[in-house]
Amino acid sequence: MRSFLLSLLLVAGVLLQGRSQQFSGAVMVLHGGAGNILPSEFNPAQEATYREALTLALRTGYERLKAGASSVEAVQAAIHVLEDNPLFNAGKGSVFTHDGKNEMDAAIMDGSTLKAGAVADVSRIRNPIDGAIAVMQRSRHVMLVGPGAEAFAGKAGVTLVDPSYFFTEKRWQELQRALARDSLDALKGDSSSAVLPPVEHPELMFGTVGAVALDQQGHLAAGTSTGGITDKMNGRVGDSPIIGAGTYADDATCGISCTGWGEYFMRTVAAKTAADLIRFKGWTVGQAGHALIDSIIPALGGDGGMILLDARGNGCLVFDTPGMFRGWVSRDGKISVLMYR
Amino acid sequence: MRSFLLSLLLVAGVLLQGRSQQFSGAVMVLHGGAGNILPSEFNPAQEATYREALTLALRTGYERLKAGASSVEAVQAAIHVLEDNPLFNAGKGSVFTHDGKNEMDAAIMDGSTLKAGAVADVSRIRNPIDGAIAVMQRSRHVMLVGPGAEAFAGKAGVTLVDPSYFFTEKRWQELQRALARDSLDALKGDSSSAVLPPVEHPELMFGTVGAVALDQQGHLAAGTSTGGITDKMNGRVGDSPIIGAGTYADDATCGISCTGWGEYFMRTVAAKTAADLIRFKGWTVGQAGHALIDSIIPALGGDGGMILLDARGNGCLVFDTPGMFRGWVSRDGKISVLMYR
């Protein structure tokens, strides 16, 4: 019965004009977040800055792969570019929590060993993806959070910064607008706002970055880094650092990085579900990605996007938001970058 | 190829004398941790205290179900009994981190709605499962960690305590023994101990508690609560609070709670993988549980146990450690409790 419903939903999903690219011969796929990314929101100069940043990230990752680096190193290099660029909601440019802090999450997974590392709720690691990689490579744990994660990262040689490094005026103003709306909603009669979380701000929610790479040894790695969602409660952890939710890689199936309304990706264990559709049902990355984004996640009320790459170079970028910053590199170095549907 | 290997491993797993109970007609399954639980480690009086505690937890959950409570309420009631009992590594009785703190994790998932809640790295929530339930029912988030989780729980009416509430002499002595061994290992020549994590202490690692219940409406819920592993790094989060790793529930497949070496359950996304074997391949809870515990997790070097219950009352308790505190209640109220193989 569930299978039948799933099939129905899949058909419905495709009819709802699935938004995706599917291609072969790729060595890296990348996203800079899904959300309200519409042509009307960007002037040509702004659009160019996003395209340049995405292109630079892809080229940086590609150069590492061409030089023989591992897929983990290539993912790290590409994500560094986006974390260091305040345009994206990761590293510098991360959004603010309800209490005006930057609390970041990141994860990495190595598809050849199924080793993984994650940090969450960190405010002092300049490049959170580096913290995640340190956890994977230099600890026996998979996930460290908060000050414990920062202390470990510092000892492992990862660059720490003062939390003020992450301040950007644009994100601060986004928080102020969200807080103003919270107040308005509270005035409308909800007196329990001390307990209830901030209201949702769908247009502010997305902007996570992520990449999946395929190296010359045929191994996959996937990584994701995010500032989370504007106005989130302190201590909130989303899907990005959860292995199987926002990040997953296995040479035998594919590498995946997600972006969107994280709670829904956590409840559906989105990335592992997609990998299991490939592993247990023989589906392609395109079929699996569409099942999650067109059917399984919307069925609960969520939305967002997902990038997938398998060890044969088959890729899929899929989303159900107005747009997603995204791109891929093919084996011959050709870079493709897209923002809108 | 992977499928073939999996089949081989499955056969090998069965030959390696799978340790499990499988039964039908159950309304609750429960565990109090897997580990070095051998008859030689317990005198009759000690054994009786464990059996009594497990029986009380099962009876408490059963009484709630019989009174028409939801599966979430039954799981909460059963886990309270184990969290409040210092015999188990959850709530009062939690193990200590490397730095001598108690940092607890817990999660709940409602199989009828796929809603979920989790807290991690909390030191002030008397019953961490209550924190997880508050996150599920009273926030729009799925996971909160650290002081943010505690502040939310307090506002939501969950009982907070001073961290000293969680001190027990027995767990403190376990940490001292672990630290002594760390020092010995460091003396043996590892000068990088400032970065490297504590050594492994397999005999101290387990003791998580968890339960899955099936209510009169036919809905499943699963919950898990833990102090983690003795001598863990500060900020370490294990599999218990990760939806899809240590905890998962879906009426369409089953409810699951895991115990063991959490990092391996995270890397294999153990609970969701078991649920997907049921959903995508039509396996039983017994087949799915054995695949994880006999094959998929040992293939990476991990061990532990898992309890599964589906919406038709089919249950499986499976582990590959010397023993697992475990039990189940049938529809007619018959309680079965086991410790050893």
Question: Top keywords for this entry?
Answer:
five-stranded antiparallel β-sheet; 341 residues; 14 strands; Glutamine Phosphoribosylpyrophosphate, subunit 1, domain 1; alpha+beta; homodimer; eight-stranded mixed β-sheet; 24% strand
Structural category of chain A? alpha+beta
Strand order across the largest sheet of chain A: 5-4-3-7-6-2-13-14
Q: Largest sheet of chain A at a glance?
A: 8 strands, mixed
Low-confidence stretches of chain A: 12-16, 190-202
Order of helices and strands of chain A: HEEHHEEHEHHEEEEEHHHEEEE
- Global mean pLDDT of chain A: 91
Q: Assign a percent range to the helix content of chain A.
A: 25-40%
Instruction: Give the overall form of chain A.
Output: globular
- The CA-CA distance between the termini of chain A, in Å, is 33 Å
CATH class of chain A: Alpha Beta
List the helices and strands and how they pair.
2 copies of one chain form a homodimer.
Chain A: H1 2-15, E1 19-23, E2 26-35, H2 44-66, H3 71-83, E3 104-110, E4 115-122, H4 128-138, E5 143-145, H5 146-155, H6 169-187, E6 209-214, E7 220-226, E8 236-237, E9 247-249, E10 255-260, H7 262-267, H8 270-281, H9 285-300, E11 304-309, E12 315-319, E13 323-330, E14 335-340
